[in-house]
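tool=predict chain=A
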Amino acid sequence: MQPWQPLLDWWFGPEASATQTAAARQGLWFGKKDSQDAEARERFGDLVEQALDGGLAHWADQPDGWLALIILLDQLPRMLFRNDPRGFSGDARAQALVAHGLARGLERDLAPIRQVFVYLVLEHAEDLASQERALYRYQQLLDGCDAAERELFANFFDFAERHRVVIARFGRFPHRNATLGRTSSAEESAFLLEPGSRF
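tool=predict ok
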């Protein structure tokens, strides 16, 4: 077994359709539960620390390892370090990994539901060009999916569009300001009072 397989098994569950996988794992992916954060820390905390320290680079030689390393850098720190600047400490390396892997076409060997977590790195970037690339990639997933999965991938596209709108308006995500010690502008403060202003 490859060293990254337990992480992918935990994150995606048993092999199934994209709709079935999302239905089963949505709470893990996008929920905020102390028990899930604790499990992530117990099972994969050491790997997260290695990844954040620049290790495990050889994982990126294979598509599944590349994806797992991206998850260690982008998704798990947000679970292990909620409301802490360290939650974003893997973003720069994750973005570099995604750019390098996409240039090599590694995403083509991943199922569409797994590609979602590659493009989330672009969606997390406080950079409009990255947001545009995320939208393009989610549009490709939407265009290529079966009718039964259209609602699922349309939802991923919609969230990417919502992220792009915020970055186009503010150049950053205002909901991160408090965690990162940034001062919100008056416009940002007003925006944060609106429904749906936080992801």
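The radius of gyration is 16 Å. DSSP finds eleven helices and no strands in the chain.
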